Amino acid sequence: MDIIKAIEQEQIRNDLPKINVGDTVQVHYRIIEGSRERVQVYEGTVIKIQGGSSRQAFTVRRLSYGVGVERTFLMNSPRIANLVVTRKGKVRRSKLYYIRDRQGKAAKVKEKTNY
Fold it and tell me: Which of UniProt's keywords are assigned here (predicted)?
């Protein structure tokens, strides 16, 4: 077991900020199209964080042309170029699945003012 833990520790990225559920984040994600590579920014609210150590993943939800779109990213993926926390959210749940059923202002997460 110690060998597996040692290998996982090597793969963990320390250059990314700490994120929590409810935060609004910008994920700068590297996309390869043919022979070219570009960075695409995906901005939305973190609705869940799952897993631990090197297997940690988080799901970001945003509205795109009035349709809710969710995308899951691996926290320690080399494809993530940058991760920026734009707003800290004030939530009392570990998974914000209830946001899927809400629209407009009801789908907003309150901002944490003192952190």
Answer: Ribonucleoprotein, Ribosomal protein
Q: Order the strands of the 67-74 sheet from edge to edge.
A: 67-74, 57-64, 36-50, 24-33, 80-87
pTM of the full predicted structure?
A: 0.88
Mean pLDDT, the chain, integer: 93
pLDDT tens, position by position, 58-71: 999 999 998 999 99
Please give the full DSSP string across 22-79, using - where no structure is assigned. Answer: T-EEEEEEEEEETTEEEEEEEEEEEEEEE--GGG-EEEEEEEETTEEEEEEEETT-TT
Domain that holds residue 33: 2-101
Overall domain count for the chain: 1
55 Cα distance to chain centroid:
13
Instruction: Look up the CATH number of the domain holding residue 71.
Output: 2.30.30.790
